[in-house]
Amino acid sequence: MYLPPQFVSTDPAHARDLIRDYPFANLISVDNDGVPFVTPLPLHLMEEEGRWLLLGHCAKPNPHWRFLQLRPKAVVTFMGPQAYMSPSVYPDLARVPTWSYLMLHCTVQARLVDHFDDKDRMLKHLIHDHDPAYEQQWRGLGDDYQRKMMAGMLAFELEITNLQCKLKLNQHRPESHRAMHAAYATGNDDQRALADWMQRLGLVNHLSGDV
Questions:
Q1: How far apart are CA 105 and CA 1, in angstroms?
Q2: Model confidence pLDDT, tens digit, residues 96-112
Q3: 99: which strand partners?
Q4: Shortest CA distance to 56 belongs to which of 165, 138, 159?
Q5: DSSP output for 65-127
Q6: What does the alpha-carbon distance between residue 151 and residue 52 come to, in Å, rounded to a whole number?
C-alpha cells in the first residue's frame, strides 16, 4: 500500500494490538481468472518461535481455500479505527479535509489444515477470543456434532512474511494536533480510539506539559 514515511510504524506492539483489537480481517487471494478474491473473516494471532501466525477458517463451499492451495501467497488486511478529519483543526483556512486511519497489510504464506485436532485447536482460540462462555456449550454438543460441523470447513495457518503498519494521524502537521485530538476525544467510538492512539504516539503530550 501507499506508505509515506511519516505514517510508518515498525513497532511490533502497534501491529500486535491492532490485530487483537480489530481481528475481523480481509483475506485476499487471486482466483483462477487472475481477479482478486476477498473473504472477510476473524483471525487469531499466534506467536510461535519468532513467527507470527494468523489462524482462521472458511466454509468448504467457499472456493478461497482452493486458491490458497494453488497459490499459497496471499494478503491479509486489518482496518483499525478510522474517521473523517475536518480542515477546521488547522489554525488557518488554506487546508483540505482528509481521513485518519490505522491499517495493517500482511503478506502471508498459507498452510491448509484439515485434521480434526488442528481445526479443534483453531476453534478453541477463536471461541476464547470472542465468546469464552460458549466453549462449554460447544463441548456439550457432543463429538459427533462437532465432527460434522468441522467437516464442513477448511482451516488454515497464515504465516506473516512481511508486514506494513500504517498509522495515519496527521503526524507531519503538529499545528493540527490540539484541535484534532479534542474533536476525536469527544466523538464516536472510532474517533475516541484515534484520540487514544494520538496520545500513545506522543502527538499530544505537549498539550499537558509532558516531556
A1: 7
A2: 999 999 999 999 999 99
A3: 84
A4: 159
A5: HHHHHH--EEEEEEEEEEEEE-GGGSSSSS---EEEEEEEEEEEEEEEE--HHHHHHHHHHHH
A6: 26
Query: Between 116-130 and 143-151, two packed helices, what is the crossing angle to 10 degrees?
Result: 100
This model's pTM is above 0.85: yes
CB atoms within 10 A of CB 153: 17
Cβ atoms within 10 A of the Cβ of 115, count? 10
- Which residue type occupies 143? D
3-state percent helix, strand, coil for the chain, nearest multiple of 5: 40, 35, 25
Kindly report, residue by residue over 3-60, the tens digit of the pLDDT: 999 999 999 999 999 999 999 999 999 999 999 999 999 999 999 999 999 999 999 9
The three grid cell numbers given for residue 136, joined into one nine-digit string: 462449554
For residues 179 and 175, what is the distance between their CA atoms, to the nearest angstrom?
A: 9
